[in-house]
Design brief:
This protein has 162 residues and is an alpha/beta fold. It contains six helices and five strands, in the order βααβαβαβαβα. The protein has a five-stranded parallel β-sheet with strand order 1-2-3-4-5. Helix 2 packs parallel to helix 3. It starts with 7 loop residues before the first strand and ends in a 5-residue tail after the last helix.
């Protein structure tokens, strides 16, 4: 990691007029939010297949809503299908559990992480220290990859994170 090379690019949803992820997600009906989540994942993978060099190890980081994954193997099918269609190596996928949604059953999230890691995916806690992504969650999940929030990065290097 200390090489200065880019480890991952994060796929973030934005509105057609530049609206933030929060604004976009707030406009999605609650009864279709998980379908929207999956549609965004598939779109991100298709774009990465087109934009990422095929011989590069850089990962595509995708935020997922933990409660959207009712059964890990079933819920990952659309992502795997998209990756295979565009020739994107699925092991370059990193799934970040969002800090915006409280994880109802930590044991279920552990099963998701185990299933995803068994497939070669990297899993992470998004924006560690923000929202629901605190020390309690880190202790419960005991996973090595965390992506800390921008406020922590800003304080660490003394300038805004990019």
């Amino acid at each position: 990691m200390g090489s200065g090379a880019v480890f991952a690019y994060e796929a973030l949803v934005r509105g057609a007029d530049g609206q933030s992820a929060g604004e976009v997600l707030a406009s999605v009906d609650a009864d279709i939010i998980y379908k929207f989540d999956q549609t965004c994942r598939v779109k991100a993978i298709k774009l990465a297949g087109r934009l990422f060099p095929p011989d590069d190890a850089t990962k595509l980081s995708i935020n997922i809503m933990p409660n959207a994954v009712y059964e890990p193997d079933a819920c990952i099918r659309a992502s795997l299908t998209a990756a295979h269609r565009v020739g994107f190596d699925p092991q370059r996928l990193m799934f970040e559990f969002t800090e915006d949604e409280r994880m109802r059953e930590v044991a279920h999230v552990r099963r998701i992480i185990d299933a995803y890691q068994a497939r070669g995916f990297t899993t992470a806690i998004d924006d560690f220290g923000a929202g629901y992504a605190g020390l309690g969650l880190l202790a419960d999940l005991q996973r090595p990859v965390i992506r800390h929030g921008q406020r922590i990065a800003d304080r660490q290097v003394g300038r805004p994170a990019v």
